[in-house]
Amino acid sequence: MNLLSIETSCDETAIAILSFKKEKKEEISFNLLSNHILSQINIHREFGGVFPMLAKREHAKNIVRIFTECLKESGLYLEKDINLNIDWNTDNEKIFESLKDNFNYEKIEKIRNLLERESEMFSELIKLLLSIEKPNIDAVAVTTGPGLAPALWVGINFTKAISIFWDMPVYPINHMEGHIVSGLITKLDNGFKIKNISSPALALLISGGHTEIIFVENFGESKYKKVGQTVDDAVGEAFDKVARSIGLPYPGGPEISHLADQARENKLEIIKELKLTRPMINSKDLNFSFSGLKTAVIHAIQKLKDLNMAEENIKNMISLDFENATTEILIKKVSDAILKYSTNTLLIGGGVIANNFIRKSFTEFTDKENIDLNIPEKSLTGDNAFMIGVVGMIQIINNKKETHISEIKAESNWNVENI
């Protein structure tokens, strides 16, 4: 069967189409027919972060086009031999009036009401729906949380619209579960498979909005328990704030990583008296705190300026020690969790695991401790519809029931424990 997957939780408009057999086997294999991601990073850079309503607007502006591209790339796009005689450049009211004699009018009216706040998306989507045959797609998986509510609603309403028109079942997907499974996606010569892991396992989720340790009781049944989390800033958020404090552009993570790598190559030594604190590294729980580390950076910058250190050297030294501190904290907490829960399986997901030093450090740590480490390819560390589709595929194979579209809504704070 073919599964359409949609992700709009933040600032990436992402759509993928997966093909698989709905049969329960030891090893789940599948093909990826199409996978598109449109990033808004350049648009949000001037704001120093993601502006929710702007993200919503960009999703609505681009989602129909990206969907069309995915259909064409996957070979599922077939135009109808029909002339609708509709002026698509006029306003939606006139377009709607001209469709009253169309046998799909009742469905179109429902879609119009659904997309009353996305007028541009309405006209583009209706034009597409009326111009092509129903594609060979059996179901839709869509991210419904956590994330930015305005952005989530674009993907949700788009999904509801095509579900109404083509009568497709819908599966709401937790974005963080997507990051959990991303490290299990394995490339084959003729497709992909989901790597088998032993349960229980632990998952470390590190991104711009999340820093969590999840106990995975049973991967196939989506049984998760959050056993550690940040008490303030997420690690990716801390990277961005520290980068801003030393004059680096958004997003800050890659910028700090680049300077830290350079500092290591040049064997830069941290001034002992200014070594940054490692907040909560020895606390008795599995929680994190990065706000204090951010504050320590601000004080360190001032001290380095008082020592008349050159601006470039300040940036390099702060980047190096901040990345070192963050990595030490993450590994210490994961190490404590592994001991507490007696597991030898670790999954890591989220944008921050794209960081070269953190990836390398966790690889060295797990090799030394004989831990089965599962991290995604860098292309799957950020937000993408591929991982969302994989979660949907696993749910379908495990016979999870579809959700009626009337019950689907954006859940900005959807906890992975409540799946």
* Binned strand content: 15-25%
Identify the strand order in the major beta sheet.
5-4-1-2-3-7-6
Number of helical segments with 4 or more residues: 13
Q: Helix fraction?
A: 40-55%
Tell me the Rg in angstroms: 23 Å
Q: Mind describing the biggest β-sheet?
A: 7 strands, mixed
- Show unreliable segments: none
Tertiary shape: globular
Order of helices and strands: EEEHHHHHEHEHEEEEEHHHHEHEH
Mean pLDDT across all amino acids: 94
- Give the termini separation: 24 Å
Structural class, please? alpha/beta
Q: Please give the number of β-strands.
A: 12
Compact overview of the structure:
By secondary structure, the protein is an alpha/beta fold. The protein has helices at residues 41-44, 52-73, 92-98, 105-114, 119-131, 149-166, 175-182, 235-245, 252-265, 291-306, 311-341, 356-369, 385-397, and strands at 2-7, 12-20, 28-39, 139-145, 170-174, 185-188, 191-194, 201-206, 211-218, 223-229, 345-349, 372-374. It has a seven-stranded mixed beta sheet with strand order 5-4-1-2-3-7-6, with helices on both faces. Strands 10-9-8-11-12 form a five-stranded mixed beta sheet, with helices on both faces.
